[in-house]
Amino acid sequence: MVWRAAIVALTALLLAACSNAPDTLEQRIAMLEPYISVQMPQDTSEPVPAVLMFSGCGGVISVQHDYAAIANEAGVAALIVDSHAARGIGRMGARLTVCTAARMRGDERAGDVVAALAHARSLPGIDASRLALIGWSHGGWTLLDTLTLAHDGAPPGGMDAMPDNALEGVRSVMLVYPWCGFLSRVHRHALTASPPVHALLAADDMIANPGACADMFTWQSEDGAQIEWQVLDGLTHAFDAPDERFDPRVRHDAEATAFAHDWFAARLRASLQGTAH
Q: What is the C-alpha to C-alpha distance for residues 178 and 110, in angstroms, rounded to an integer?
C-alpha cells in the first residue's frame, strides 16, 4: 500500500501548491497598480483631491470615464480601478462569474479598495487627506462591504489583514444603483463609524433591488450611520450607461444621467473642499 500513501502525499503537496495564500497589502497593490488609470485635472500646481472609482460587475465601461471627466473639471483626480483586468476577467467571464456572484464577491473586492486607497495616498500630486469613493452596482456592494470590514477590523476576503488606516483620508462614499442583496455584509454589520454615504437608487431597477437598499439604509441611519439617499422614479439599473443598451432590463436616460453627473460633482465639491492637513 506504499504507492497509495505516496499518491495521497503527492496530492496533498499539489493541493498546497495550488492553494492561494492570503494577499498582503503590498501584494494586492502590486496586482492592481498596472490596472489603475490615474486621470489628473489640468491644474496640479498643488496637491489635488482624488476620487477612486469601482465599476459594476461587467467591468469598466464608458460610465467611469464620463464621471472621471466630471471629477477632473471639478479639480479632482480620478482613479479608475479595473478589478476585472487585474484578474484577467473579460466581459463574457464577468457576465458568467462576477455578475452571478460566483467569483470576486464584494468582500473579496474590498481588498482592492483598501489597496487602491493605499496606492492613491502614495502618489505625488494627490492630497491624501481628501479622498472619495464611488461605486456602481457591484462596485457599490464592494464599497459597502469595505466599510463594514473596516468598521470591524476584519480582513477582506483573500487578504491577511485589514490595515488600521484603511479608510484614512476618505471623506465621502457615493453609490449609484448599488447591489444590496443578502450576500452583502451590510445587512449584518454596522456603518456607524464610516464616512458619510450618499446613494442614488433607481425605482424600476430589476437587477439591484432598490427596496433592499432603502430598508437597510433606514435601519443603519437609525443606528447612527451617516447615509443620504434618493430613489429616482422611472429609472432602471445602469440608467447612466449608454453602452449597456443590449440588456432589456436597462434603459439609458440622458436627463437622469445629467442629474447624476451634477449630483456627483456637487458631492465631490462639498466633501473634498479644504486643504491638506
A: 14
- Residue 25 contacts by C-beta under 8 Å, 6 or more apart in sequence? 114, 115, 118, 159, 161, 163
Please give the C-alpha separations between residue 160 and each of 23, 35, 164, 168, in angstroms, as whole numbers.
6, 22, 13, 19
Residue written as cell 503527492?
A: 10
The amino acid at 46: E
Sign of the C-alpha dihedral computed for residues 166, 95, 71 and 29 taken in this order? positive
Kindly report the pTM of this predicted structure: 0.90
Q: List the strands of the sheet with 36-39, edge to edge.
A: 36-39, 77-81, 48-54, 126-136, 170-176, 197-202, 227-232
Amino acid at 208: A
Q: Is the dihedral of CA 63, 232, 96, 115 positive or negative?
A: positive
Q: Tell me the mean pLDDT per 10 residues along the chain, length 277.
A: 36 40 95 97 93 96 97 97 97 94 96 98 96 98 97 95 95 98 93 92 97 96 95 97 84 97 97 67
